[in-house]
Structures are given as structure tokens and as C-alpha cells.
What we know:
Elements: H1 2-22, E1 32-40, E2 55-59, E3 62-64, E4 66-70, E5 77-84, H2 93-107, E6 113-119, E7 123-130, H3 133-141, H4 151-163, E8 172-179, H5 190-200, E9 202-209, H6 221-233, E10 238-240, H7 245-258, E11 261-266, E12 276-283, H8 286-291, E13 293-295, E14 299-301
Parallel strand pairs: 5-6, 5-8, 8-9, 9-10
Antiparallel strand pairs: 1-11, 1-13, 2-3, 2-12, 4-11, 6-7, 12-14
Amino acid sequence: MKLAAVLLAFPLVLAASAQQADVPVLRVETRLVNVPVNATDAMDVPIPDLKQSDFQILEEGKPQKIAIFERQATTPLSMVMAIDTSESVITQFQTERDAAKRFVKQMLREQDEMDLISFSDTVDEIVPFTNDAGRMNAGIGNLHKGDATSLYDAIYLASQRLTEAKRDATRRKILVIVTDGGNTTKGMRYQQAVEAAERAGAAIYPIIMVPIEADAGRNTGGEHALIQMAQDTGGKYFYVLDKHDLDKAFAHLSDDLRTQYLLGYYAPPRHRDDGFRTINVHLTDAARAATAKLRYKSGYFADGR
């Protein structure tokens, strides 16, 4: 009788298993969107004491729940340093290299990684991502001068490298560009370069070296393009009018990265026709919001390409 009961039950087990196999599995894709934010007062001094409850994030105008909050941004960095080695910066080339070496030594921490790219006629990756400051500085010391300036190609390649960087949940991606601002080759266009940076989640920090022989009539189109890129990606631009100001620019850049807040939220479900989604960040306290300035990226591409 027991054997018969088992044999009778066996088809039921198979039927139940078959039914379970037919049950559709619902997979929900979630994406963590990191939003580094710099908050300064009316005098452009960083505001150091904000809490998670002081911020509100909106995507496409809709409030989002903050899932990650880090104060003073001790979170790890993946940074690409792209250095212009074209003929137009020849008079400041040695100063440029020396200041970059000092910045690397000061900035690179155990949890960080850096990549070195040079650009002139061509764009070359000199040092792949590393945590070794000595290796980075050896690469900087071996940079060689070229002729033209492939600025947009350099931004595109740097963005690709940042896409391939480590993917810790709280890692920030930074692109530092040391250049006089011009793009003089026919390669990538402005829109292709900035879209690549936005897709990589990179904040662009241009250090714009004004040529010594510059005059009021010089072509500043490249400078304006870099400034717009910095604003769109949540970065910041710095002008260097004198070679002695280069160290100051690197110091300001370092301070900017060390006084950030890192906010993160899980994006709403993605739709097939999604493209660029806009982000806005506000302070919840009206009195503080009236005088504070917040800097952050303008949005991200939701299609995942």
C-alpha cells in the first residue's frame, strides 16, 4: 500500500514541477545613480555640515529616495589625467609636467587609481590605471611634445577608460584635462566627447592654460567648450594665467574633490525609449537654499549604452 501511494503521488510531483517551470520569472533591473555634489555658501566657501535630510534629489522632476550619503567624500577615485603636449603649450611644458607630478604625489591614496593620457596629433595612453604614484610620475616625466591638439579625441578615450575602471558602488570618476583649450584636429566632435563623458559618469575638471602670448582676439571656442563640459558633468574649470598658478589650480582641484558630498539613488525602471534623464538637487532648508550654491551633474543616460 505504501508503494502504491508513492507511485500515485509521483505524477502529482511531476505535474507540480511542470507548473512551477511555467511560472514566469520577473526580473527587475536596478541602477544606482551616483551624484557627487559640491555645496558652497555665498562666499564660495564649502559648507561642511550638511546631512542626508538636507538634500532632495529629483529625476525628471520626480523626487527620489537617497540610498547613499557620504560626507566630505572620502570615497575612492578613478581619475584620468589627460595632458596636452601640443606645440601650443611648449613654453609651459616643463612647468606643466612638474606641477602634475606634485599633484599625483599629493592626491593618490590607497583606495584610488589613476590613468595618464597625452594628446597632441594623436592620443596615447601612457600609463594604464594604477595606484603607483612613482609609475604615474615616470610616465609624466617621459611625455614628449607634438604638434596639433586632439582635445575631443582625448576626452573620448579618457571616458572609455573610465567606463572600464573599477566599479565600487561609491567610486567617483574624474577626468582632469591640462590644456590651452583648443581642438585643432578632425576627429571626434564636441557632442561625441561630452556624451562619452556623461555615459562614463565622469566629472570633467579642465585646467586651462592661457598662452603667454595670448591676446584679446585669440580663439576661445575650445575654452568655452571645456567650461560647458565642466558645468554639464558637475566638474569645475580653472584658469592658469601664469605658470606659478598651475600648482594653485591643482590645489583647488584637490580641495574640491575632498569637500564633496556623495549622494546616490536607485533609478526608476528603465523604458526602451529612455535617453538622457535630467537630475536636480535642492536643499530642503529654504534659508540655506537661498544663499547656497550646489554643483552637480545635469543628468545621465538611462539606456545603458
